[in-house]
Amino acid sequence: MGLVGCVYPPPFIPYYDLNISSTDGGPVTTPGEGTFTYTDMEVVEVVAEADERYRFAEWTGDVRTIGDVNAANTTMTMSDNYAITANFEADEIVTFVDPNLEAAVRHAIVKPEGPIYAARYGTAYPP
Length: 127
Prior knowledge:
With 127 residues, this protein is mainly β. The protein has one helix spanning 99-109; strands at residues 15-22, 28-30, 34-39, 43-48, 54-61, 73-77, 82-90.
């Protein structure tokens, strides 16, 4: 005779490993880098943060359950063992030969000093 309301044997709950790494240019801060274990269908937040003079490019690897491979802050639903990599690319610093042109650009983008980065993917830099 068993206990009332108990299921015997207990239901099997699968666990899956998520291996996370990054390229040069920044770390994965949530949950971190390394191997982490989650239950089936658990939604995991993954966050990559670019170092100075880098920008987040995309997630690669086993990305079929990632919410948005192009977002540095996204989620992943665990339904198997996965390995993902946060990829970063270096910002391209613009160098001006003509100081008048540089002054005009700095005035237009309201950036009186510091590096100016080239625009990519329709995004103006600095953000």
